[in-house]
Amino acid sequence: xxxxxxxxxxxxxxxxxxxxxxxxxxxxxxxxxxxxxxxxxxxxxxxxxxxxxxxxxxxxxxxxxxxxxxxxxxxxxxxxxxxxxxxxxxxxxxxxxxxxxxxxxxxxxxxxxxxxxxxxxxxxxxxxxxxxxxxxxxxxxxxxxxxxxxxxxxxxxxxxxxxxxxxxxxxxxxxxxxxxxxxxxxxxxxxxxxxxxxxxxxxxxxxxxxxxxxxxxxxxxxxxxxxxxxxxxxxxxxxxxxxxxxxxxxxxxxxxxxxxxxxxxxxxxxxxxxxxxxx
Length: 279
Ligand SMILES: Cc1cc2nc3c(=O)[nH]c(=O)nc-3n(C[C@H](O)[C@H](O)[C@H](O)COP(=O)(O)O)c2cc1C
Hints:
- This protein is of the alpha/beta class.
- The protein has one domain (2-58, 128-274): TIM Barrel (Alpha-Beta Barrel), CATH 3.20.20.
- The protein has helices at residues 12-18, 33-45, 64-69, 79-87, 89-97, 120-127, 134-144, 156-164, 186-197, 212-221, 230-262, and strands at residues 2-5, 23-27, 50-54, 147-153, 169-172, 202-206, 225-227.
- The protein is globular and about 55 Å long.
- Bound molecules: flavin mononucleotide (FMN).
């Protein structure tokens, strides 16, 4: 399934016109309720299948690398970013020749990140609603009226509440380790969450899944599926569309090869007997 962020540079309408495979819209709960309603309606009208509400960005993490590089959205031209562009000429050429940088789901509502440069941390801390609570999530879930997931659940208690408010999935995720320094890895939380709610909703393992073997481990532990960001983003940065296609091919062939090596002919053959834990 392909997932796209509320902060995406391509609109849900355009994506929908290009692909008819299952699609997920990732929702950020903004202070601006007009923006929230607009995102919800546009994703619904564009026939997105799943809504995922990100719940682990109540404020921005202390992204030290972003602070050091001065990374903003849209990118700001500084001496060091000019140097980066100069050493990777294709990035510069693409940036200048491939359509203007836009955040189409936001641009009618906010300046930050669209015409005003903003760091991601600053965007989260100023534009998102830090008072978001379970009631808000429940209302959103019923407004959406279809498959609905919380993205960023890391505890059994929250997983159970996700079931109570009507979610059909949760993404066990720590935002790729980009938010809370020292948080456990999603994989380490997975077993207890699957045991508590795995028969009531789809449990998706996310974060650090960068190889077919990582997927096999998560599926063996009981995850229904895996998802990831950098698993395709590095390939995208290095090789564009062809890079992403090659990465997906590699994941596929690794999954198939390693399942053969494990003597498994179908995903349902994967189980906890495949794993040993260090005590
Ligand atoms: C460049 C980048 C941009 C991201 N943007 C978003 C976003 O807009 N919304 C969101 O919920 N998560 C976002 N994430 C977090 C990912 O959805 C995901 O939780 C994380 O990347 C998973 O870890 P992985 O990269 O190890 O697979 C982003 C991650 C990266 C690396």
